[in-house]
């Protein structure tokens, strides 16, 4: 799925905490979706746990949803069944750059294993490795993880798991050979992705947090002498930044990762490019994205462009929130599946104390505003324009929803193909569901 075609609406997760989170509006065309009834996740009693174990080690394995610690995975020490029922739906994300001699044959092998498993998602393979995001019942999702770990090429992959409380987060399974694991203008097959020295240096979540806290402390101590040898680069899209971002990161002026061009602009000042005119030899560039793959890929481009001090957040924001919670983070995390948004509590619920909620409220309550009237909002509710030929994604107060019949502007209210205004926080189905219908009769 193209990243710019993944935006529908924001799901209000049943376990989300109710506090104002930093959000601005964004314009992305695509459809919305209708959530299924939530699945209740109950922690199993010890006597109920099965024998399905994963190869993990260290104290991280004793924490919630911890995996991929990068250590030797020879023994079966970690039991993820402590966190999920067998039939509880989860989403698994991972990628790995590794040489695959016969990617077509690898696709066939994976398809054969997944026969009979209830797995939906996007799993792409090519000569450079694998990139996967999929959903399914816990027992099926983890069976695939365990099978992959038996292959030495994937034994150290950082698998990341999060709850999918409304069932499958993807409509179907797409497992195939794909020339580019991530879409980027000009392709990525020519990039030295298998050469780790050409990619940025990965920082663990704790190292990342330390760097951000150190820089922010220096900036607060002397606003007139800020750290000019440091750039925090959000290698995502503008609408992802709108949902949530790290303090100090400039909003990317990008609607699709394919068109990312940070550091590629001419030497003259470009206000939309955080890397314009920086000292490539002495500037530390800290890059982050959702799961890490976009940063790994783009860092090879920056390395070829002469940037020396490149660092990425290992495992991306999702791994950071799981380990450190929302320290230095504002808002929720955009995800490219039907859930669309996850609060930090989805990854590390124990850190969401009353004090941290109040802190987030004071930090985030200033720019969650209605796209139409500009009024401040207390709930994170995006909607797609009722005009199917517009389908603009925007943040809107209920008063404007009612006044404009679910549309983003007065002009759209006069369109001939209008979907009905959905009550409350319901979501439209995928936009293509309405595409060929006579919407005037709906």
UniProtKB/TrEMBL annotation:
Signal peptide as annotated in the record: 1-22
InterPro entries hit by this protein: Rhodanese-like_dom, Rhodanese-like_dom_sf, Rhodanese_C, TrhO, TRHO_N
Keyword annotations: Signal
Species classification: Eukaryota, Viridiplantae, Streptophyta, Embryophyta, Tracheophyta
CDD domains assigned: RHOD_YceA
Residue ranges constituting the Rhodanese domain according to the UniProt record: 226-329
Superkingdom of source: Eukaryota
Protein name (record): Rhodanese-like domain-containing protein
């Amino acid at each position: 799925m193209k990243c710019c075609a993944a935006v529908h609406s924001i799901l209000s997760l049943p376990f989300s905490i109710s506090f104002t989170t930093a959000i601005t509006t964004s314009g992305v065309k695509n459809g919305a979706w209708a959530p299924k009834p939530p699945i209740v996740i109950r922690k199993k009693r010890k006597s109920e746990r099965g024998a399905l174990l994963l190869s993990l080690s260290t104290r991280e394995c004793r924490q919630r949803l911890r995996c991929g610690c990068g250590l030797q995975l020879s023994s079966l020490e970690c039991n993820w069944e402590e966190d999920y029922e067998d039939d509880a739906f989860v989403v698994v994300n991972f990628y790995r750059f590794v040489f695959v001699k016969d990617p077509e044959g690898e696709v066939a092998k994976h398809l054969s294993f997944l026969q009979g498993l209830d797995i939906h998602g996007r799993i792409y393979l090519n000569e450079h490795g694998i990139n996967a995001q999929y959903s399914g019942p816990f027992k099926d999702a983890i069976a695939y993880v365990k099978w992959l770990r038996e292959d030495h090429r994937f034994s150290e992959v950082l698998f990341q798991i999060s709850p999918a409380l409304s069932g499958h987060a993807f409509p179907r399974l797409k497992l195939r050979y794909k020339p580019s694991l991530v879409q980027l203008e000009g392709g990525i097959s020519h990039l030295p992705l298998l050469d780790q020295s050409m990619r940025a240096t990965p920082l663990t979540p704790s190292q990342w947090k330390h760097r951000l806290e150190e820089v922010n402390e220096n900036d607060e101590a002397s606003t007139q002498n800020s750290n000019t040898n440091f750039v925090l680069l959000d290698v995502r899209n503008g609408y992802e930044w709108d949902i949530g971002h790290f303090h100090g990161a400039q909003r990317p002026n990008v609607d699709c990762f394919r068109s990312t061009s940070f550091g590629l602009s001419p030497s003259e000042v470009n206000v939309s490019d955080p890397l314009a005119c920086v000292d490539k030899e002495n500037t530390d560039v800290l890059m982050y994205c959702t799961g890490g793959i976009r940063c790994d890929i783009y860092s090879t481009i920056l390395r070829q462009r002469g940037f020396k001090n490149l660092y990425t957040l290992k495992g991306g924001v999702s791994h950071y929130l799981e380990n450190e919670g929302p320290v230095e983070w504002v808002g929720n995390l955009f995800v490219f599946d039907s859930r669309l948004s996850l609060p930090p509590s989805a990854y590390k619920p124990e850190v969401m104390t009353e004090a941290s909620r109040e802190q987030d409220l004071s930090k985030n309550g200033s720019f969650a505003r209605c796209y139409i009237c500009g009024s401040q909002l207390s709930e994170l509710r995006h909607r797609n324009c009722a005009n199917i030929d517009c389908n603009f994604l925007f943040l809107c107060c209920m008063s404007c929803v009612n006044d404009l019949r679910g549309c983003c502007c007065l002009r759209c209210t006069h369109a001939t193909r209008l979907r009905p205004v959905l009550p409350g926080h319901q979501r439209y189905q995928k936009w293509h569901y309405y595409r060929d219908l006579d919407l005037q009769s709906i």
